[in-house]
Amino acid sequence: MNMKTKNRISTIVLSALLLVVLVFVFVLFAKPDFPSESVRLSVEAIGRARSANAQVYAHREFLQAQNYYNKSLDAFRTENNKLPYQRNYQLALSYSGNALKMARQALEKTEVRIKTLRNDFSLGLKQVKARRDSVLVPVNYLELNSVFSQSLNQINVLLFRSEESYKREELNEAITLLQEVDNLIDQLKTELDETVKSSFGNSGQWEAIVAKAIRESKENGSAVIIVDKLARLCRLYKSGTLTNEFDAEFGSNWIGDKQHQGDHRTPEGIYRIKKKKERSLTKYYKALEINYPNESDEEHFQQLIEDNVIESGSKIGGLIEIHGAGGRGFNWTEGCVALTNENIDILYKNVSAGTPVIIVGSLNHSTELIKKLTAEIP
Amino acid sequence: MKSLVNLVLLVVALAFFAACEKAPQQEVDAAKAALETAKAAEAEIYAGQDFNMAQDTLNMAVAEIEAQNAKFALTRNYDQAKKLLASATGKATTAQTMATENKAMVKAEVENLLATINTDIEATRTMMKKAPKGKEGKAALQMMTQELDAVVASIAEANNLYTAGKFMAAKDNLTANKDKVMSLQNELTTAMTKTRK
């Protein structure tokens, strides 16, 4: 091989090598740029949405943003595994763009949702507290706090929990708890309505009995005592005319007719004064003992035993009086009607043994009043 | 000549492979595992901020790895990604530690409240025995008994929340009930002081 041929071969080899190197360089560097900025923006947007709690308040959008972001990473990986000149980041970019868009939407929705929830909570809290307070009016009036003590305590506990959740920014929980309180108030209102209906629902009948007694008082020129438990009043009529009206207190378990001894209820029915007791005969200043139990009470008591409403060994009780030592502002007796000493003096002077005493759960006027109180609960 | 070319190619190939840096997969796995551990420790609830930061840092690291993967093998540099991964792992571990601590703290508070509220209720019942009776006092005491019974019923609910691991809710329940018991004790103290006068 002469020199010339050698040189030619060398040139060809070198050219071929150069060509290979050029192809190699082309393959390595002729590739699209990685869209770092787009990825960075979507990562940051997802971070901002997460910090704002979008996973809670815009769950769907946040989840979509994350899914798009994961898809974009997968697409980038797929492209990066290809030869540089074969790479195409368009799909990955599109996913990344969607991730950014959804993360921004999630953030926006979260901000709006938080604002709405805060407003809802403030308004709801005010309304629920107002409802609780208005329920307390008839509950206090009817002295049913002990009957409803569990519900009332639960209402207060849940309200406290709701406010604490709000302070921790657990807005959904705070609102849910408020709704629970609202439901409890609804239940309490229903129970209250039922109590009023069952205990004072027959005020029409009582009204007729009282009207008849007043009419007879007018016809006979005699006195009659009308006791309205719901109105907490004891009225004295003489010859059919109302002459005196006294505040009255009853048994601590005052709602409903007396059923048996020791139930702390004041009986409801038509009675007469059996005995007038001077100071020396009573520890309650002065007293007017009535003829409880009367025939109707005996029958009612037997019926309650037969119906298993009360135990068979129960006693019917007795010694029901209208007496002094009252004026305490709440129902405290064991079943009697208590007046202030000043008022029992007036009543004592104006009645005698045999004077009719009508004790009713309520008359129309007082029933309407309590119905109005329960109806006023928003 | 031929052997020279072979030698050059061999050296280039060796240099190429020697300079090739591997993606820090082990570190990625470690960071992900740390986040899972934090999640299991309820870090989302008890150390939310730290947990979120760890998650975001991991996202940044993974993006950085892909950015480096897109480069020519000889020019890849995963230093930044490794830094981010180390930071993500650290933050996740911190979140897990904080969550464990915070949860334990709330749990201890609940246990303390559960123990003390029962003592408080007993103390209130003892005070009630010593409180002035009479018809008025009797009615008030009857009312208080009902209110204490309502508190006891509510504490049963707090116990259920505690058993279910809902410590915050249990704590709020018990705090509200404790306030109620304290207000009853104050009422009794006032009534007893009045009677003494």
Concise account of the structure shown:
Chain A is of the alpha+beta class and 378 residues long.
Structure commentary:
- The complex is a heterodimer of chains A (378) and B (197).
- In chain A, 59% of the residues lie in helices and 11% in strands.
- Chain A has 378 residues and is α+β, with helices and mostly antiparallel strands.
- In chain A, strands 3-2-1-8-4-5-6-7 form an 8-stranded mixed beta sheet.
- In chain A, strand 2 and strand 3 form a beta hairpin.
- In chain A, helix 2 packs parallel to helix 5, helix 4 runs antiparallel to helix 5 and helix 5 runs antiparallel to helix 6.
- Chain A is rod-shaped.
- By secondary structure, chain B is an all-alpha fold.
- In chain B, helix 4 runs antiparallel to helix 5 and helix 6 runs antiparallel to helix 7.
- Chain B starts with a helix and ends with a helix.
- The interface between A and B is large, with 44 and 38 residues.
Rg of chain B (C-alpha, Å): 33 Å
**What is the terminal separation of chain A in angstroms?**
114 Å
Tell me the CATH architecture of the largest domain in chain A: Beta Barrel
Return residue spans of chain A where pLDDT drops below 50 for at least 5 consecutive residues: none
Using DSSP, what is the number of strands of chain A? Answer: 8
Q: What is the residue-averaged pLDDT of chain A?
A: 90
How much helix, percentage-wise, in residues of chain B?
Answer: over 70%
* Helix percent band of chain A: 55-70%
Strand order of the largest sheet of chain A: 3-2-1-8-4-5-6-7
* CATH-assigned fold name of the largest domain in chain A: L,D-transpeptidase catalytic domain-like
Tell me which oligomeric state these chains represent. Answer: heterodimer
- Per DSSP, the total helix count of chain A is 11
Any idea what the CATH superfamily of the largest domain in chain A is called?
L,D-transpeptidase catalytic domain-like
